[in-house]
Protein: Pyridine nucleotide-disulfide oxidoreductase
Organism: Lentilactobacillus curieae
Amino acid sequence: MNVNYSVAIIGAGPAGIGLGTALQNYGINNFVILEKDYVGATFDKWNKETHFISPSFTTNGFGAPDLNSITTDTSPAYSINSEHPSGKQYANYLRLVAMMNHLPVIQNTAVKDIIPSGNHYELMLSSSEVIEAQYVFIGIGDYSYPYRPDISGSNYGLHYVDIQDYDDFERKPQTIIGGNEAGIDIAVNLAKRGIPSTIYTDESGLESKSADPSKRLSTYTTSRYLNYANMINIESNKKLVAIKKTTSEYNLTFRDASTAISQTRPIFATGFAVSQSPLISNLFEVSSNRPVLTASDESTIHPNVFLIGPQVTHDDVVLCYIYKYRQRFAPLAEEILARNNLAANPQITQAYKNANMFLDDFDDCDVNCEC
Ligand SMILES: Cc1cc2nc3c(=O)[nH]c(=O)nc-3n(C[C@H](O)[C@H](O)[C@H](O)COP(=O)(O)OP(=O)(O)OC[C@H]3O[C@@H](n4cnc5c(N)ncnc54)[C@H](O)[C@@H]3O)c2cc1C
């Protein structure tokens, strides 16, 4: 017999755990969170030198919640005592939130497929069980879907997610493709070990004058870069179009027909594309690698299927940081209540608003929130 829920959330990262807590706060209890690994698994996969760029600080009591909190009443700074949490520290914070709220997470259970069936959806699980739900929230993150440029020779590149330990790198000059947060982070970690690098990038956040931290390089990354700037060569306006391997080196060709030689495997700091997941490509229209959404973050082709997390995009507004997309948890919980003709508790709404965690009008983003 199939198990029936009102809401199924897929993924137990910050998006899934944050939304689950919001549903619970609003009194929606007939939900389940399905997680292929365990709560916070993505963060445990970060290499040990990767840290949050957005700072955590115990400011919750003063109307400015910790930038990395996913609920109104928790703070990673408070629970893990770190201003720039490592992946492992943040994974622990997520597990604390899930445990404290007794969230109904089913771990080690991947959702393989989602099939519309009348007024609900059937979720096919890796355990061969089937779960039925009226509303589905997809919070699978993008870390499992590294984006490698669609160019000849892209198989020669090593992606940021593949870096296990910077001590494994040969002590030879390294080549990095992409000059934003990840590219500079790699270069800094190599420079700390005395390894110089060249970054080839079509654009770099270092040059951006925007006030939006999604466009401009974070202060955390910029200050670390400045300590090692003499070991990091940045070549801008260089869009890679091909990699060719010879017996001893890699030949890189750029869109402006210029070329470069790398003695080592190029490292891709080229981001992620969740549209590579069949759950996304089967359930959403996709444009420029991003799922197309209604104003309620819902699929334009499958009603009651929503996207949560950093890939939520509305025109120029890209909610790519936790402090941005956490503002959608409460409005989405209210949306479910409204679709069931139920009123939202105004005290809960006010608590989210007081914590600046309630974004229901995208015109309210007063800086261009593009990533
Ligand atoms: C190096 C790096 C640094 C970052 N720094 C910051 C920062 O400083 N500040 C900030 O705000 N953001 C930062 N981010 C972004 C942040 O990590 C993401 O916003 C966050 O991970 C997205 O949360 P999520 O819940 O959507 O996805 P995830 O955390 O990836 O969680 C998704 C979960 O879904 C599970 N899953 C996937 N597919 C399935 C399936 N089919 N069935 C069941 N479960 C599934 C996965 O196992 C995973 O546990 C950084 C990201 C990276 C890579």
User: Anything to note?
Assistant: The two ends are 44 Å apart (CA to CA). The mean pLDDT is 94. The chain has two domains: 3-144+272-364, 154-268. DSSP finds ten helices and 19 strands in the chain.
